[in-house]
Amino acid sequence: MQVPAAKIQFLPEDRAWIAERIQEVLATGQLTLGKYGAEFEEKFARLCGVRHAIAVNSGTSALEIILRSLGVEGKDVLVPTNTFFATAAAVVHAGGTPVFVDLDPDSFGISAEAVEKALTCRTAGIVAVHIGGIVSAQMPALVDLAARRGIWLVEDAAHAHGSSYRSVSAGAFGIASSFSFYPTKVMTSAEGGMIVTNEDRLAEECKIYRDQGKASFTVNAHVRMGYNWRLSEPHAIIGLRHLERLPAMISERRAIAAIYDDKLRELSGLKTLSIPADGFCNYYKYIAILKEKRDRKELKSILRERYGVSLAGEVYEEPLHIQPVFQKYRSRPLPLSEDLCARHICLPVFSGMEEEQARHVLRALKEVTG
Ligand SMILES: Cc1ncc(COP(=O)(O)O)c(C=O)c1O
């Protein structure tokens, strides 16, 4: 049996729905900033329970636009070290300095305690990342901390479409949040991203940045150093369809995760990461920790070659503070991330995955990790 690391699912009826609407926009010529983009924004804002959503062409640009709108030039921004390159790169592109924070072993996110220790008078704000779709139980404490210290909290919710903690959706904790619709994400628009916020002024700023810094769509006065960060209508159409299917796709992922939860307890070599009891996880990733450090590349190749099981990409393979490009920002060792980044694996999970495939993964893991 073959189990791929991930699979992107567009059912035949989804493909027909998308094709019909793409035909329509090709016929009308309304190919960007049109009615489908507006509908995508409205429905995504509703998903997150916020007032505004601004569709853009990637999760990276969503983050950079938020940071430019908040103004980070010459300031420090706290970011987790176990995140995707773009979280820290967006800070740099917006003119700020990333300061790396160690991970919270309970959630793979960041803790209020670690953030508090890293704060200085140069800190403008914090970017929290919902790693693997887990909205950490630390979120209320991070919101309080940011308010108390007069800094902002932004969520990089690239992994967390539809996830929540205590019924607050990912994206609704911070002053503004970014999502990614890259193909491997829980939902995709092929490429794309979304900014969500409850702040009216910030939403206006983000729209200005998205479209070349223009004061408005029809006025050619450039008032900000914007860029072409627009989302095209064909992308918005694809995203809209996956947004409709999001609850079903998350249920399918959660059914697979439940099988893993149940049986992984019996394996002596692996430990699962607990999702907060009052949280809801979309299982973008299913994270398992190897009790003992071992050669992960070798483990992955045994699983693939002997059992046909491909593990998903880690979160993350190497923390950012040891990546060559970020060496100049390095401040101090971050031992929890250095250990856990090397000592975890991500099991295959995707919508459309068969229960029998999950059982096969468990059998293979039992043989290989004990
Ligand atoms: C945590 C995180 N932030 C930001 C991004 C950037 O999103 P995009 O690839 O849509 O630019 C990604 C993903 O790809 C991500 O995983």
What can you see in these coordinates?
This protein is an alpha/beta fold and 370 residues long. The protein has 2 domains: 12-101 and 108-240, 3-Layer(aba) Sandwich (Aspartate Aminotransferase, domain 2), CATH 3.40.640; 246-369, Aspartate Aminotransferase, domain 1 (Alpha-Beta Complex). The protein is 40% helix and 17% strand. The chain contains 11 helices and 15 strands. The chain has helices at residues 12-28, 35-48, 59-70, 85-93, 112-118, 139-149, 200-210, 233-264, 296-307, 335-342, 355-369, and strands spanning 52-56, 76-80, 97-101, 123-129, 152-156, 164-165, 168-169, 176-180, 193-197, 214-216, 219-222, 270-272, 279-280, 286-290, 344-347. A 7-stranded mixed sheet has the order 1-9-8-5-4-2-3, sandwiched between helices. Helix 3 (59-70) crosses helix 7 (200-210) and helix 9 crosses helix 11 (355-369). The longest helix has 32 residues, at 233-264. The protein is globular, with a radius of gyration of 21 Å. It starts with 11 loop residues before the first helix and ends with a helix. The model has no long low-confidence stretch (mean pLDDT 97). Bound molecules: pyridoxal-5'-phosphate.
Sketch the major β-sheet: 7 strands, mixed
End-to-end span in angstroms? 20 Å
CATH level 1 name of the largest domain:
Alpha Beta
In N-to-C order, the SSE pattern is HHEHEHEHEHEEEEEHEEHEEEHHEH
The whole-angstrom Rg is 21 Å
Number of domains: 2
Second rung of CATH, namely the architecture of the largest domain: 3-Layer(aba) Sandwich
Number of strands: 15
**The CATH H-level homologous superfamily of the largest domain:** Type I PLP-dependent aspartate aminotransferase-like (Major domain)
Query: Uncertain runs with pLDDT below 50, 5 residues or more?
Result: none
- Helix amount: 40-55%
Query: Overall pLDDT, averaged?
Result: 97
Indicate the structural class: alpha/beta
Taken from the alpha-carbon principal axes, the silhouette is globular
What molecules are bound to this protein?
pyridoxal-5'-phosphate
CATH topology of the largest domain: Aspartate Aminotransferase, domain 2
Strand content: 15-25%
What is the tally of helical segments? 11
